[in-house]
TrEMBL record:
Enzyme class, spelled out: hydrolase
Catalytic site: 126, 144
Gene symbol of the encoding locus: lspA
UniProt superkingdom: Bacteria
Annotated source species: Neorickettsia risticii (strain Illinois)
Protein name: Lipoprotein signal peptidase
Length: 167
């Protein structure tokens, strides 16, 4: 119980937590992308499990490859992502709940990792290919998964808080 009280009263700790979680997501994402680049050098893909392959994809679109392939898509998404990172920082630093701070850290880390890829490589490096029989989920990376999970947690906790206040 003391940890909860300490966390609720420390805005600085909450901000550090968001940044620390974000840093961990960036580190894990960039490291896994680097490992996959080494592992997939000269091959089209590696089958890890019957439903999981690692493949090498350079994505100029957004998460899961949507809106890629347009001439100025990389510049457009780079210009959009920087304000998104600032937006996430602003809202995450106002958050007071532990789980929500971690969720905002996931979103922040995923966004920063993908922006880093766009700046360094002109595209986001994706490699995780889930499939079942002939049904394939779009190829993604750790940053995309972190953003998805972070948004899901933020939405879940914001809607559950509203439902709780109605009762």
């Amino acid at each position: 119980m003391l940890r909860g009280k300490l966390f609720e009263g420390s805005v600085f700790f909450q901000q550090v937590l968001v940044v620390l979680v974000g840093f961990c997501v960036v580190s894990i994402d960039l490291y896994t992308k680097h490992l996959c680049a080494l592992m997939l050098d000269g091959v089209t893909g590696v089958k890890l499990l019957p439903i999981l392959n690692f493949v090498k994809v350079h994505n100029t679109g957004v998460s899961f490859g949507f809106f890629g392939g347009y001439q100025f898509s990389n510049l457009f998404f780079l210009l959009v992502n920087v304000p998104v990172v600032l937006f996430v920082l602003f809202f995450s630093f106002r958050e007071r709940r532990l789980v929500a701070c971690v969720a905002w850290g996931f979103i922040l880390g995923g966004a920063v990792a993908n922006v880093t890829d766009r700046v360094r490589f002109g595209a986001v490096r994706d490699f995780i290919d889930f499939h079942f029989l002939d049904l394939h989920w779009p190829v993604f990376n750790v940053a995309d998964a972190a953003i998805f999970l972070g948004v899901a947690f933020v939405l879940f906790y914001s809607t559950s808080e509203k439902v709780g206040s109605i009762n």
